[in-house]
Amino acid sequence: MALNIPALLSVLLFYVVTLGIGVWASKKSKKLQKNGNQTEVAIIGGRKVNMVIGLFTTTATWVGGAYINGSAEIVYLPGRGLVWLQAPLGFAIGLILGAIFFVTPMRSKKYLTMMDPLQEAYGNSMTFLLFIPALIADVCWFAAILASLVKSSAVSVILDIHNYLSILISAFIVITYTLFGGFYSVAYTDVIQLVFMVVGLWICVPFALLNSATESIAETAVQGFFQDPWLGKIDVQYIGLWFDNILYLGLGSIAWQIYFQRVLSASTTTQAKVTSAVAAVGCVVLAIPSVLVGAVAASTDWNQTSYGLPSPYVRGEASMILPIVLQHLCPLYVSVAGLGAVAAAVMSSADSALLSSSSMFGYNIYKRILRKMASEKEVMVAMRISGIVLGSTAAGLAFLSNSIYDLWFMCGEMVYALVFPQLCCVLFVPRTNTYGSASGFFLGFVLRILGGVDSIKIPPVIHYPWCTLINGAYVQLFPFKTFTMLVAFTTQILVSYASEFLFRRSLLPKRWDICKVLEVEDASHRGKEEVTNVQLQNISSNEHE
After folding, report:
1. Is 422 among the domain residues?
2. Cβ distance 383 to 358 under 8 Å?
3. Which of 31, 109, 234, 384 minimizes the number of CB atoms within 10 Å of its CB?
4. Contact 18, 351 (CB under 8 A)
């Protein structure tokens, strides 16, 4: 394959523009840091991000490279189809539920990260433990995003350049502007990235739809021409799995620092709720071009194109269907625009993942556990060093692109099973404690592992109802991911209340209370009483006056 000079120039231009905006935004960040808390400005923009920027950055974070490529792939795959495209609906559900239930309690105490309420309620040891799955998930997500630029994106199809070079360049640019500009660099670059993404993909769609090798997608939606109809179907035996995936994508997408960075950065609580809800609509709308590309691919006679036979599915190239359509069903200048859209989608999510993990490490681990007397400047240095290490690790993992997606999904499931119930308990269930938190964490971890992990070749030890042997491997058709999350959630509540009861009734010696939960709860109760007494005194004084 010859080097495509116009395509290469378009990608380089996009990288230069992105880096330039990131550097420009970093200057604004530095000005705000001089007038306020450096850490707060770096992590959540000093809580001064306006509605427009907030909407762009929230939407762009969820709509990444894996999202647009994966959406086209699912619609195209025989046996899958549109009904199995669950990410847009799942993410929309998560953003709406987040706006309704999670925005207010998280903003009411002016938290900086998702780990703050957990650290406040369950202590440093549990915070460090809960940080591990969140950290691994962020790193694996960053790696999967970088891998999508080459493994399942236009770079490996339209550009004849080495995979390692595109990964290293992309990682370098993301790390540079993210760590020096913080949240503002991420947010402002998300604006241009989202614009590139929308314009680039929509330019390509009409050309793909009108190609002479493509049948009408309205007809192929319900009739099989070159393969199964692209609408797809859900067999009865897979209904439990379908709902499990929807709940996992919806509820599991809430317990991520990338979401709460946007929620906490808004100027007001109302703005944060509106931004989250509107971004839910944006996630669904921005999946439409990918859906149409997947439908076109399923409706194309590949023998009439320069791609030829066998089809991408038969060749095992279904994951690259979006760039394949760009190259073989669209003119060159159109495919170049599409390449810019893919690159934009990749960058828009990669920077968020990097800032997320470095923020939690710098503030919750370094500042509040390792170096409690650390200055603001020292915390910023810790964030940048950790960001470089984590970004470099993710770039290295990106070369394992054959397995990195499976690893990321596994880590996402761990966040769903372990972190989401913890967040729900600390925000909505009063008096849950460290004993309950630890019990729910370890039981959830064990149940998830025993349910089987395909990505690391762990077969299921627990065969839930409807566990079926398919193509030589057992598949859990029971919604076991959600079941595991609910068991962890229930265990945390029961153990918390049971431990408090046993210690308060002296059924267990209080000297065994190694987590000091009774002292913490009593201190919290005294604090609330003092606040109430002060409020009553103020009311009495006002009435007397």
Report:
1. no
2. yes
3. 109
4. no
Instruction: Let me know if residue 231 belongs to a domain.
Output: yes
User: Per residue in 12-21, pLDDT tens?
Assistant: 777 788 888 8
Peptide linkage before 6 cis (omega within 30 of 0): no
Closest among 35, 133, 147, 187 to 402, alpha carbons compared: 147
- Provide CB contacts within 8 A for 5, sequence distance 6+: none
What letter represents residue 5's amino acid?
I
d(CA 336, CA 4): 9
Residues 365 and 442 in one domain: no
Q: List phi, psi (to 5°) of 542.
A: -65, -40
Is residue 251 within 8 A of residue 91, CB to CB? The reply is: no
Which of 390, 417, 444 finishes a domain? 417
Q: How many CB atoms lie within 10 A of CB 479?
A: 23
Cα 283 to Cα 164: distance, rounded to the nearest angstrom: 30
Cβ(179)–Cβ(384) under 8 Å?
A: yes
Same-domain status, 74 and 198 = yes
Whether the Cβ atoms of residue 272 and residue 103 lie closer than 8 Å to each other: yes
pLDDT exceeds cutoff 70 at 499: yes
Are 326 and 154 contacting, i.e. CB atoms less than 8 angstroms apart? yes
Total residues belonging to the chain? 545
| Secondary structure of residue 474 in the 3-state scheme | strand
The yes-or-no verdict on residue 85 having pLDDT over 50 is: yes
Q: How many CA atoms lie within 13 A of 534 on its CB side?
A: 6
If asked whether residues 435 and 295 sit together in one domain, one would say no
Question: Do both 490 and 387 map to the same domain?
Answer: no
Q: What total of structural domains would you count in the chain?
A: 2
If asked whether residues 331 and 456 sit together in one domain, one would say no
Q: Which of 9-18, 68-77, 266-275, 338-347 has the lowest mean pLDDT?
A: 338-347
Same domain? For 140 and 206 the reply is yes
- Write down which residue in 417, 445, 471 finishes a domain: 417
- CA dist 141 and 534 (Å) reads 48
Distance of CA 506 to the CA centre of its chain: 45
* Domain hosting residue 158, numbered range: 8-300+314-417
Q: What is the pLDDT of residue 265?
A: 95
Q: Is 78 helix (H, G, I), strand (E, B) or coil?
A: coil
64 with 204, same domain: the answer is yes
Query: Residue 391: enclosing H or E segment and its boundaries?
Result: helix 376-398
